[in-house]
Every structure is written in C-alpha cells, then in structure tokens.
Amino acid sequence: MGFHLLSAGMSANDAGAPIERQVGTTLRETDAAVAVAESCTGGLIGSLLTDVPGSSDYFDRAVVTYSYGSKRELLAVSREALDAHGAVSEPVARQMARGICDTAGTTWGVATTGIAGPEGGTDENPVGTVYVAVANAAPWGSNASKTTVERHLVEDAKTRTERKERFARQALTDLLERVRARADA
C-alpha cells in the first residue's frame, strides 16, 4: 500500500482530456469493464463515468455502501476486517474492491473509503484521508488477479464537497494507471 499527498495543483490527466473520458477510452480499447463500490464518494465516481457518452460499453454499476451493514451485505466485507480496522482502512478498501469486481463479474473493481469531514478524523486517518482500492479479475486459472490499495490525503480542500470530488477523481486516476500498466504488460 502506498501513501500520497494530493495538492490542488496536481493534474489527474496528462493528455488534456477529463480523467473520466481517459478511463472510458482505455477501458474500451482493452475490452474491459468496471464496477465501483463507493463509501465516502457517495456515487460521484459512477456519476463521473456515466457523464461520458457511450459509457455503457464499459461501466457496469456503482453501489454506495456507506454503512457497515451495506459493506457486509453487498460486498462481503468481513465483520473481522470492520471490527479490527474500521471502515476507513486498507483491508476494508481491498475487500470492497474485490467484492464489487466479483459480484459484478467485471474486469476491474474500484472502491473508496475515507473521511470527507468536516468531522470524524483521527490521528491515524485525519479528515481528507481516502483509501482507493483497484481490483483486477484476471482470467480463471491464471492466478494473476491483483488488488492494490493506495492511501491518499487531501489536505488543502476547504469543503466536504471538494474533498469528495478530489477523492473520486483520484480513484479514476488510480484505475487508469492500473489499466494502462496491465495493458502494457
């Protein structure tokens, strides 16, 4: 798991197109599909993806799992992970991404869990913390499926809405990086 500090000046798209369009183009080119499990982003990732015309070619679904119960019921996040680590943690993000990828039967699964604020932060996970997990379902029998988790911190956002937007765009950036790396492998 990595940790990244995000600043307002960072660009999520090096080619000039919005990140959601870059993700769509790359998924389409690799004949892949994605499903999303969102907690702190509340559906924004799914909204961004479906803002792109033709997104039904590669976007399967988004589920918002805000409560412990919904994470357990819809994504099979274990009670043990929630008890031991809390919802805002690397193990829970990992299980969320794997769960959405498996239940949707997509090539890719993305999950976010974090603290958008303005309250709720801790020393370990201050307001502005988000865990982004990206799961890839490789072909059966290949033993090549992989899930990565990155911890990001948005310190300079002034509002909950701004943090959520930055979290969602970061999740799409992390997905794009993984899809491109897999395509280049």
Walk me through the topology.
Elements: E1 2-6, H1 19-29, E2 34-38, H2 44-50, E3 59-64, H3 68-75, H4 79-85, H5 90-104, E4 108-114, E5 129-136, E6 146-154, H6 160-184
Parallel strand pairs: 1-6, 2-3, 2-4
Antiparallel strand pairs: 4-5, 5-6
Helix pairs in contact: 1-6
Describe the structure.
By secondary structure, the protein is α/β, with parallel strands linked by helices. The chain has a single domain, classed as Maf protein (Alpha-Beta Complex), CATH 3.90.950. It is about 40% helix and about 20% strand. It has six helices and six strands. Strands 1-6-5-4-2-3 form a six-stranded mixed sheet, with helices on both faces. Strand 2, helix 2 and strand 3 form a beta-alpha-beta unit. Helix 1 packs parallel to helix 6. It starts with a strand and ends with a helix.
Primary descriptors:
six-stranded mixed sheet, 6 strands, about 180 residues, 6 helices, Maf protein, alpha/beta
Quick overview:
By secondary structure, the chain is α/β, with parallel strands linked by helices. It has helices at residues 19-29, 44-50, 68-75, 79-85, 90-104, 160-184; strands at 2-6, 34-38, 59-64, 108-114, 129-136, 146-154.
Q: Choose one word for the global shape.
A: globular
Detail the poorly predicted runs. Answer: 6-14
Q: How many individual domains? A: 1
Helix content: 25-40%
Mean pLDDT over all positions: 93
Q: Report the major sheet.
A: 6 strands, mixed
| CA radius of gyration | 15 Å
Tell me the number of strands. Answer: 6
In CATH, the architecture is Alpha-Beta Complex
Determine and state the CATH class: Alpha Beta
CATH topology: Maf protein
H/E element order: EHEHEHHHEEEH
**Structural class category:** alpha/beta
Q: Tally the helices: what do you get?
A: 6
Order of strands, widest sheet: 1-6-5-4-2-3
N-to-C CA distance: 20 Å
CATH homology superfamily name: CinA-like
Question: Quaternary status of these chains?
Answer: single chain
